Amino acid sequence: MREGQNVIYRADYQPPAYWIDTVELCFDLDPAKTRVLNRMKLRRNAQMPAQPLRLDGEELNLARVLVNGQGTSFKMENGQLVLENLPAGDEPFELEIFSTCAPAKNTTLSGLYTSGDSFFTQCEAEGFRRITYFLDRPDVMASYTVLIRADKARYPVLLSNGNLVDQGELDDGRHFAKWVDPHRKPSYLFALVAGQLVAREQRITSRAGKEHLLQVYVRPGDLDKTEHAMNSLMASVAWDEARFGLPLDLERFMIVATSDFNMGAMENKGLNIFNTKYVLASQATATDTDFFNIESVVGHEYFHNWTGNRITCRDWFQLSLKEGLTVFRDQEFSMDLAGEASARAVKRIEDVRVLRTMQFPEDAGPMAHPVRPEQYLEINNFYTVTVYEKGAEVVRMMQTLVGREGFRRGMDQYFQRHDGQAVTCDDFSQAIADANPGSRLAQTLEQFRRWYSQAGTPRVKAEGRWDADSGIYSLTLSQSCPPTPDQPAKDPFVIPIGLGLISGGVEIANGMHVLTEQSETLTFPGLQSEPVPSILRGFSAPVVLEFDYPDEQLLALLAHDADPFNRWEAGQRLALGRALAYLRTPGLARSDIRLDAPFVEAMRGILRHPTLDPAFKELVLTLPAETYISEQLDTVDPQRVHMVRDAMREQLAQALFHDWEWAFEQHRENGAYRPDPRSSGRRALAGLSLMHLCIAARKSGDTVWPGKTLQRFKDASNMTDRFNALTALVVSGHELAAPALARFHATFQDDALVLDKWFALQAGAPDRGGNILPIVKQLMNHPDFNIRNPNRARSLIFSYCNANPGAFHRPDAAGYVFWSERVTELDAFNPQVAARLARALDRWKKLEEPLRSAAREAIARVAAKPDLSNDVREVVTRALAD
């Protein structure tokens, strides 16, 4: 049954009744009252029945409407401007709309808003309607000319999409800039920036011999932190042209950074607007992770220039058409830049960790939806890890099924067919299949598309059987998928499964099997002894593998598997099995947790291994996340999960104490700072070693290593080493953490992004006696905390509610009360951020009592608020649904 008047359904899609061919916008910028003159050329869509023109608009003051230069009648209906008396026939007509808006009052950070002394826009998904009345939907693509006028002293830089064609002085100290975007685009890709900005510039020459200007704009004082972003942009341009033959198609490409931004970045055509978090970096203020994320996000937004901008979505249900594909492209970009096979493997493992700790729970929760959703109340709620990360896995499986060269042929086909169009996920998969007619993708295309239409994480159960008499090993693979909202039953998926067999430490078989039936059996004859199967190599499909590996097989895989992912996975399974065994032990006390010698020795073997990449060692020796452990249980007490994981980590710290000392000393010095994979991996292992040494010291009472850690914190020449040392002190709960935190704040109090780390570290620290929530509440009153800044809100509130389950799920339910108050507070001025915070209790039904009842009461308390935004209402309503 369809409930709710405002729910949008994919099945109801209809093309627009009108097309907009050209748009001329004139802005007179003023924070209190910006004037927007919008001249459009429209024509009726001959494929649709004659009907009124309905233009979207929000928070606008309408002053004038002209059709072909003449006044006309209109009405307002359900928030839309409705025009009925329009010229008949198919001839184009001109529509002129003059309206005003108040950017300074726009706290949603959607549409045109002010941040400090500058103007910015964010139009995806439906923000353009807050700028002017328009057909604000992705399948209406037009050519834009933009004239910006503003006070020159206050707003010396005036930017918009495309190419700068004119600029000059005006009366009364004002000036103007005129921009023309030669490429048709939907309104969500419109961008405008004006303010006190400075730019790093770089001229490049493409393979075709064309010269382009690259610019990175930031606030004065931040220019010295833009070198890495510029290098990442140059690398992105070069990579996309080399790997996919896709050149930069504008005279210039601009990036602008702002601290007030709801997202990470936005791919507006030729004028990408970024959160400062993904632009600004120096070795003194940014960690290796920050450097890596900047490279990845800059690449992602640039790659959208073709996969999202030149070809865009027909409707918002097709969001993964651009996002899943572009996440795949930025993952490939990062792996290609990493170079060495070990660094590529580390990147793959890191991507899978995100998928399994964030997307798998989403697939199992109330907000579960297919990669291509069927309905939504608020589209902003579907910018999810399912659409992005799982969508990328779907694209990766296509590449697996057609091969790397075949995928390139498919991409070429896609652009030849659809450049300049708004299309669907089916159009994309059809192009890849048509370019590879004999491939498994082409043979199974309709079945493969179930990845787009069916929600949930498929489970692949594997059962091995060894017949010593015949020398035959049989492996039976069967698939299933749990019910999800509105989808109680699922049809079989197409699942590529990387396979290998190991015997005596040597690989004896390696290949790929494509599972299409409910169950299939593979046989391997002519074997001398029972092999160890290595299944789902490289995480070849986004599924849960169920295979009852005995410890001896996992230890063999950890020691010998040639596939780095499954080697890491073997270590994770060994740790997970022990954590689950402890959690299922009635009456378990912390003192009962004792790691067995085989597991400890296996971890020592990895840590001391002479040839393994340090970054890989750090991944293997990091225990599975609390959220991932929790997902393996039917009911969860998050504090008990935290206790078990923390005790296991303490055991590793003590049992491998001298090995951690060795690892730290071997990897602590790396010469001049470079954020390359090799150096970053060494720093990561040194940081993990330091944390374990401080944890061991907490148990033993030793003061040597905490003292060394504080000294390293003080002497560090880069933020990675400094923050690793600070984290070690905070996580271990040592008394030296307090003075170190105070010193860190005093040193970096004028750097917003570094202060975000300071807030996040304290909110995400292990809970000892319920101390974290009082700390969070105290920090909310800190002079440097501002809940209206999304980065700052995320750093403190989200780090506690979304990323610290052991502290958030308190027996007294105080964490839930805090959550409900913050969701309501944020919703009053920024619904997008509020809705993301609301997702913290998605999995409340898995909680043990009395936590479950307390969580439900908190969600119901939010849902009962009469003035909730659609953003939050959709999340809490779905959470409460049976």
TrEMBL record:
Keyword field contains Ribonucleoprotein: no
GO molecular function: alanyl aminopeptidase activity; metallopeptidase activity; zinc ion binding
EC number: 3.4.11.2
EC class: hydrolase
Residue ranges of every copy of the Peptidase M1 alanyl aminopeptidase C-terminal domain listed in the record: 551-881
Source organism per UniProt: Ramlibacter tataouinensis
Cofactor field: Zn(2+)
Name this protein carries in UniProt: Aminopeptidase N
UniProt cross-references to Pfam families, sorted A to Z: DUF3458, DUF3458_C, Peptidase_M1, Peptidase_M1_N
Reaction(s) catalysed (UniProt annotation): Release of an N-terminal amino acid, Xaa-|-Yaa- from a peptide, amide or arylamide. Xaa is preferably Ala, but may be most amino acids including Pro (slow action). When a terminal hydrophobic residue is followed by a prolyl residue, the two may be released as an intact Xaa-Pro dipeptide
